[in-house]
């Protein structure tokens, strides 16, 4: 993608994310809204999720009609190749937190071009007004415009903090839970924030050293992948293979220092 176009898109998406998050979600956080369920009683969606995705879809279609959209709530296009420019959108990542806690949720947008890799990634922690951004081309990743340091510091398993989901630690059809239990004993601490996008952002920020989770959709990971890449971290499927951006992935994203040890000793898919 041409650098000038990338900068134009970056400035548009930043403006739209502040509009959606700040002017529409944050100031109306105490308003009543409709809550529905999707695949199960714990899989929540609200009219705010839908309205937010619709807002982005309309903006993108108006300004960039040739771009395609992949979105969680159905306002996107049917996309089965990575050709052209694709916006991958999670209007609210952490809907359960949004509903129950009114915090700890994010808007996540990743923009990709011709399948080559991520161009622009943004994760907006709406209630804290913290925007994480990453742009292709070695420019790095930023937290509220402050450049994040590269993840070069030596990290070892015994001093690391790792974000995990409880659902993966105990579902023995999918992961060797004994090895996960061992991991929990061997590291310094675990965290579970309930928003995949924020968990990626925290890996990029270096405040957690890895995030392991069993089942993420493209919109959960699209922006985070770019941020973690830009600070020199790595994201792979939990079986070590490269990520499939249009599929469902069990994910390990982490500081490179601990990737091999995590895959060899602790993360075994059954
Ligand atoms: C969910 C959150 C959660 C993760 C789930 C996702 P949603 O996204 O990221 O942390 O464990 O797998 O589906 O539905 O709140 O956008
Ligand atoms: Ca959802
Ligand atoms: Ca999500
Ligand atoms: Ca969502």
From TrEMBL:
GO MF annotations, alphabetized: inositol monophosphate 1-phosphatase activity; metal ion binding
Cofactor(s) annotated in UniProt: Mg(2+)
KW RNA-binding (keyword) present: no
One of the protein's GO biological processes: inositol metabolic process
Catalytic activity annotation: a myo-inositol phosphate + H2O = myo-inositol + phosphate
Enzyme Commission designation: 3.1.3.25
This protein's UniProt keywords: Hydrolase, Magnesium, Metal-binding
Residues involved in Mg(2+) 1 binding: 72, 92
Gene3D superfamilies: 3.40.190.80, Fructose-1,6-Bisphosphatase, subunit A, domain 1 (3.30.540.10)
Domain of life: Bacteria
SUPFAM superfamilies: Carbohydrate phosphatase
InterPro entries named in the record: Inositol_monoP_metal-BS (IPR020583), Inositol_monophosphatase-like (IPR000760), Inositol_monophosphatase_CS (IPR020550)
UniProt: Mg(2+) 2 binding residues: 90, 93, 220
PANTHER family: INOSITOL MONOPHOSPHATASE, INOSITOL-1-MONOPHOSPHATASE-RELATED
The protein's name in its UniProt record: inositol-phosphate phosphatase
Organism whose genome encodes this protein: Gracilibacillus boraciitolerans JCM 21714
